[in-house]
């Protein structure tokens, strides 16, 4: 699959998921978004860019942090995401926030436009994440900051359940497999940021507990985000059996109260532009 085709595929997944994205009464994107904004150190009056803004898990706490004297721009390539999030912003009366169609891979803004660039659970999905990070570095002012969140370890029950679903994919389709990527651990994250012209300020780990009433609730959540990419390839006549297998895999996450509890670890990386030469020093 070409990088362009991969991008189109991901956009299509999130376009279809837009109406239910982060709207299934599951704590996941919101706490990760709040943690990302907190780590970014946004100040009142800052100009902030949120790439891949989705339904506002990062955008809304960023707007609160900048206050009415700042400005937050959210971009997303899924048109329905943009429309629905813009409506949410308008209803909330957040006049310092703008939501527009835009590519997280190649944001089209002038260099040095932002004090902070935020990327919540998005860079690892991009076809060329290192290229995207270089683009973000160019958008930052000399004293600016980039803050990104990326997945760490998934709950073992979640991994077992998704493996159970994947076992029902048609034989000709490849099974999801772990890959070594640019955000796998602190060492690779540091190397990736360095290659993009950024210096690490901090890397921290955050854990989020997500609770589900039962396997059907978990499946609704899976359909509402990137998990849809797996589910949409399951044959309709195998969906019930796949769900039953996932339910058995999730039994290890059953709590005394009877619901399901899954814990996800995520990393938040804050980086700053590397200053080069007298002109850069003078700019600071």
Automatic annotation (TrEMBL):
A Pfam short name: Methyltransf_31
Segments forming domain Methyltransferase: 44-161
Gene3D superfamilies, sorted: Vaccinia Virus protein VP39
GO terms (BP aspect): methylation
InterPro entries named in the record: CFA/CMAS, Methyltranfer_dom, SAM-dependent_MTases_sf
Source organism superkingdom: Bacteria
Keyword terms, alphabetized: Methyltransferase, Transferase
Gene Ontology MF term list: methyltransferase activity
PANTHER family from the UniProt entry: CYCLOPROPANE-FATTY-ACYL-PHOSPHOLIPID SYNTHASE, FATTY ACID C-METHYL TRANSFERASE
Name of the molecule in the record: Methyltransferase type 11
Organism: Salinispora tropica (strain ATCC BAA-916 / DSM 44818 / JCM 13857 / NBRC 105044 / CNB-440)
């Amino acid at each position: 699959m070409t990088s362009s085709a991969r991008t189109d595929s991901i956009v299509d997944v999130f376009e279809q998921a837009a109406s239910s994205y982060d709207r299934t009464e599951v704590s996941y994107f919101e706490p990760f978004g709040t943690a990302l904004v907190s780590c970014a150190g946004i100040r009142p009056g800052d100009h902030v860019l949120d790439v891949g803004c989705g339904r506002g898990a990062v955008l809304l706490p960023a707007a609160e942090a900048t206050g009415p004297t700042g400005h937050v721009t959210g971009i997303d390539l899924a048109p329905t995401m943009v429309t629905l999030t813009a409506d949410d912003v308008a209803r909330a009366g957040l006049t310092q926030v703008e939501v527009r169609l835009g590519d997280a891979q190649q944001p089209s803004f002038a260099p040095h436009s932002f004090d902070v660039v935020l990327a919540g659970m998005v860079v690892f999905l991009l076809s060329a994440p290192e290229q995207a990070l270089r683009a973000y570095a160019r958008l930052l002012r000399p004293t600016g900051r980039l803050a990104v969140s990326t997945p760490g370890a998934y709950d073992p029950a979640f991994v077992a359940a998704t493996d159970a679903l994947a076992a029902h994919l048609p034989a000709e389709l490849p099974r999801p497999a772990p890959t070594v990527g640019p955000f796998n651990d602190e060492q690779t994250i540091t190397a990736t940021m360095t290659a993009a012209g950024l210096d690490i300020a901090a890397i921290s780990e955050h854990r989020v507990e997500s609770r589900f009433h039962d396997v059907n609730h978990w499946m609704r959540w899976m359909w509402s985000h990137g998990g849809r990419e797996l589910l949409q390839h399951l044959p309709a006549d195998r969906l019930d059996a796949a769900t039953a297998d996932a339910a058995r895999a999730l039994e290890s996450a059953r709590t005394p109260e009877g619901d399901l509890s899954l814990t996800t670890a995520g990393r938040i990386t804050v980086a700053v532009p590397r200053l080069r030469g007298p002109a850069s020093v003078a700019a600071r």
